[in-house]
Amino acid sequence: MTASRSMTRLRLAFALLVATIGLVAVSERALVTGLAGELMQLAGLACVAVAVLGRIWASAFIAGYKDTTLVRTGPYALARHPLYALSTLAMLGVGLASRSLAITTALVVSIGGLHVAAARREDAHLARNHGEEFARYRRAVPAFLPRAMPRGLPERIEVRPRVFRKSFLDAASMLGVYALVRIADVMHATGLTPTWIRLP
After folding, report:
1. Full DSSP string of 164-191
2. How confident is the model at residue 185 (pLDDT cuts 50, 70, 90)?
């Protein structure tokens, strides 16, 4: 996948997240409140935590090899695009933190759509570069929803620290977005920000 397409996707995702934080700060979301709202936000944190840990694990296998090697071990034996699947799970968590069904649905559909499009481009790239080897891999392994855990993991993998470091920054950004949504929610609940819109 080209850097320009990846940058466009990242910019769109960033804009959606900024809009989400803004909406939470200026919206009344009275459908899920009290204990139910707290549980919804805790469920969101659990989604983000699983996504963060999963992305770090997946990145250990593919960081630095994505454009040159067909990685089929570890998380890539479960799904062809675990990073995209986990990022979508993180956005579900961010949506749940907003306590809004509308925001949650919009985030998951929008970000999920961006990831599906990116995955199709990556599949086409891998098909061009790896031919029948990728065709067999594609037939055996689903794109996003993981299949049963493979029987074993490789004894060792080579990790490229300079590239792998980015996965930790990605993880911090997901936790940061979750925290900003929670802060925006508290600001609205305490009257520090106005109510401009009401959302389910």
Report:
1. HHHHHHHHHHHHHHHHHHHHHHHHHHTT
2. very high
